[in-house]
Design brief:
By secondary structure, this protein is an alpha/beta fold. Helices cover about 60% and strands about 10% of the residues. It is built from eight helices and five strands, in the order βααβααβααβαβα. The chain has a five-stranded parallel sheet with strand order 3-2-1-4-5, sandwiched between helices. Helix 7 links the parallel strand 4 and strand 5. Helix 2 packs parallel to helix 8, helix 3 runs antiparallel to helix 4 and helix 5 packs across helix 6.
């Protein structure tokens, strides 16, 4: 019997945001998943190339919103710090996961999924998951999980699978 390859978990942008922003109860679960996969030859975290740009944008914007909420002015220096932090987070994702490109094949797969799901952003993620041969998509988007042709798991279950791999 041939040895099975590593468990491939495509991590949705929302999970990476939970990891970096630490605003919800799922932050600890995301941290646990990333720690369980770190250095493991039995687990491969995957990330859509589109997630990197979404992650960087949302993180930089969130930091600027946070500064304004704290009564600070978003000076060029504050904006530069937000961008630098967002770049550092994207670099962390690059180091912690394999980036799955989203090209023509993945986009065509997304279009094929439209009658089932009809959410271009999610369908691009699913197209990437299908083309990359992901075993699971890790997300807490219940609608995505309900309609996905790729099995979806929440972060807690993904961490459990990573520990068992």
């Amino acid at each position: 019997m041939a040895a099975r390859g590593p468990l491939k978990l495509l991590v949705d942008t929302n999970v990476w945001l939970d990891y970096f922003l630490a605003r919800s109860r799922t932050h600890a679960e995301a941290a646990e998943l990333i720690a369980a996969a770190d250095g493991s030859e039995r687990v491969a975290l995957l990330t859509s190339s589109l997630s990197l740009k979404d992650l960087a944008y949302v993180l930089a914007q969130d930091m600027k919103v946070g500064a304004r909420a704290a009564g600070a002015e978003v000076t060029p220096e504050v904006a530069a710090a937000a961008r630098e932090t967002a770049w550092a987070c994207a670099r962390f994702v690059l180091d912690a996961s394999l980036v799955v490109p989203v090209g023509r094949d993945e986009v065509l797969r997304a279009f094929a999924l439209r009658p089932v799901h009809d959410d271009l952003e999610d369908d691009l993620l699913l197209g990437a998951a299908c083309c990359a041969g992901a075993d699971y998509v890790v997300t807490h988007d219940r609608e995505l999980a309900r309609r996905s042709p790729v099995p979806c798991v929440d972060v807690a279950r993904a961490a459990e699978l990573a520990r068992e791999a």
